[in-house]
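Customer escalation, tier 2.

The customer says the design service returned an amino acid string that "doesn't look like it belongs to this structure." They asked us to rerun it and document both sides in this ticket. The original structure tokens are below, unchanged.
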């Protein structure tokens, strides 16, 4: 169906039963064994990631989990994932019933949350990308990991294609333009992108125009709703405030938090700015000694400047500026 869809006339496309097709196709893409398997291939692969004789982690190309991954990525559905994702996007944007947006977001939220939890379970998530040459075998670096990251890249791009359609639908559908739906959808989008941040920052997807459209539009919508904005910040807050996270995944999620928070400082109460935003940024303000944290260092300073320039933070700025200036001189 995805292969014939591009040549269908608009009249023929209108005859598709959007509400009936969408849950079937979306479930096949995200949860089926021919699709992304709910991300469970990540956790399963960890059993075959072992230390070799040189004390480096290796993932054999002959292991059962890698062979299963290869089987999945060479399947018919996976091979057509780009066109299938575009079909899902069309169904989301063109369906008569706006309920399809809620269904799509619920499916994506469940899927992406599972993906990041499965990634955290793996030994591979404990290795900073800049240190993979030190801790991974040549087989893992050159054979097995490239296939894994191509799979995660497919997850990222498919998700963005669908979220782009959700965003477009939410912007133009009168049924979704009330005061209840927009902040809920925007918050869900931003949590989904938070869960996939370990993929997007590695692949540089933040330079991808569709990613930026989805990310910035969701932030723009959410910034009009103070309560929902603070709820998002609480939902994605760093696990440990006041110090640089030890786990590479947590450092990646910290970076996402800093980048997202910068856009919400105007609607964040002064107390939360001090207790959460300043506390999250502070440990990264003088982290230039670690070349792996340069991007997070820049994000932390951008967030601090946004906090200090927010009108409601005048009293906080008076107390924080001396500390911040001192931090600048230490850089």
């Amino acid at each position: 169906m995805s292969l014939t869809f591009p040549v269908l006339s608009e009249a023929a496309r209108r005859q598709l039963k959007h509400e009936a097709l969408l849950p079937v196709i979306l479930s096949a893409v995200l949860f089926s064994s021919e699709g992304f398997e709910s991300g469970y291939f990540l956790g399963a692969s960890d059993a075959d990631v072992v230390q070799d004789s040189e004390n480096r982690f290796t993932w054999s190309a002959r292991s059962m989990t890698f062979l299963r991954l290869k089987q999945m990525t060479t399947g018919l559905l996976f091979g057509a994932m780009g066109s299938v994702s575009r079909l899902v996007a069309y169904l989301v944007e063109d369906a008569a019933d706006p309920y399809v947006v809620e269904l799509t977001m619920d499916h994506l939220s469940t899927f992406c949350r599972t993906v990041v939890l499965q990634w955290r379970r793996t030994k591979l998530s404990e290795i900073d990308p800049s240190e993979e040459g030190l801790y991974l075998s040549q087989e893992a670096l050159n054979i097995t990991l490239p296939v894994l990251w191509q799979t995660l890249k497919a997850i990222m791009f498919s998700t963005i294609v669908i979220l782009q359609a959700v965003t477009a639908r939410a912007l133009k559908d009168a049924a979704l333009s009330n005061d209840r739906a927009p902040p809920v959808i925007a918050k869900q989008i931003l949590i989904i992108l938070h869960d996939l941040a370990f993929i997007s920052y590695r692949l540089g997807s933040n330079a991808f125009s569709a990613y930026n459209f989805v990310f910035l539009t969701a932030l723009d919508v959410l910034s009009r709703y103070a309560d929902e904005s603070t709820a998002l910040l609480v939902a994605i807050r760093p696990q440990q405030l006041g110090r640089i996270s030890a786990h590479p995944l947590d450092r990646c999620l910290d970076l996402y938090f800093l980048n997202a928070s910068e856009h919400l400082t105007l609607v964040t109460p002064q107390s939360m700015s001090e207790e959460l935003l300043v506390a999250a940024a502070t440990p990264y303000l003088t982290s230039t000694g670690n070349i792996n944290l340069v991007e997070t260092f820049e994000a932390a300073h951008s967030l601090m400047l946004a906090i200090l320039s927010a009108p409601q933070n005048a009293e906080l700025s008076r107390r924080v500026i001396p500390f911040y200036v001192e931090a600048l001189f230490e850089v």
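Tier 2 assessment: The sequence is consistent with the input. DSSP finds 17 helices and two strands in the chain. The first strand starts at residue 49 and ends at 51. Sent an explanation to the customer and offered a walkthrough call.
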